Amino acid sequence: MDEPKELTESKPDEIQLGIENVQRFFISHLDRIFCAKQYLIQQLPEIAGLSTFPDLKIAINNTIDSIQAQIDRMREIYQILGETYTLQYAKGFKGMIEELFSSVKDQNGNQELQDMAIIYYLQSIESLEMASFQMLQIAAMKFKNEEVNQLLKDNFSEAKAERALLLLLSAKYVTS
Fold first, then answer.
1. Looking at residue 11, what is its pLDDT?
2. pLDDT of the residue at 12
3. How many CA atoms lie within 13 A of 86 on its CB side?
4. Which long-range contacts (CB under 8 A, 24 or more apart) does 20-27 make?
5. pLDDT, tens digit, for every residue of 118-140?
6. Which among 18, 30, 170, 175 is most buried, taking Cβ atoms within 10 Å?
7. CA–CA separation, 174 vs 176, rounded Å?
């Protein structure tokens, strides 16, 4: 097995991304998270209906409002940048949401394991959303637009708070 090569120090001026390339990257990845949020908000009521843990139902229903606020912020970002979104990039996140339903159904009616599956997949989805918003924040630095940066920061903070809530819920669920 090859040993990892050491990273060489490069000067930032050696990387020639260009604003157009960064914006293309940014928009295509914003589309992905936007599509995922759109799909998730449609599916969450059914997911809440599958849950038997009252605190989890409440958390899921509160998450719907949070996701709608995130979607509204993303629409604002598109508007600021003079871009429009496309709904063609949802495969990855959509697949994970569909896996959530599949996993819940695989528990063969064991309500406790169904709730654990819901918590597990929602936790995983939030982690991916956090990483997405964080990377978008980094890419958006190239635009030098404080409003876009703040909107992304707000979305990241909400995804982080939702993930923390799910961690607390899973601990409460397992220890109760």
1. 58
2. 56
3. 8
4. 22/139, 22/142, 22/143, 23/81, 23/83, 23/142, 23/143, 25/139, 26/136, 26/139, 26/140, 26/142, 26/143, 27/78, 27/81, 27/83
5. 998 888 888 888 999 999 999 99
6. 30
7. 6
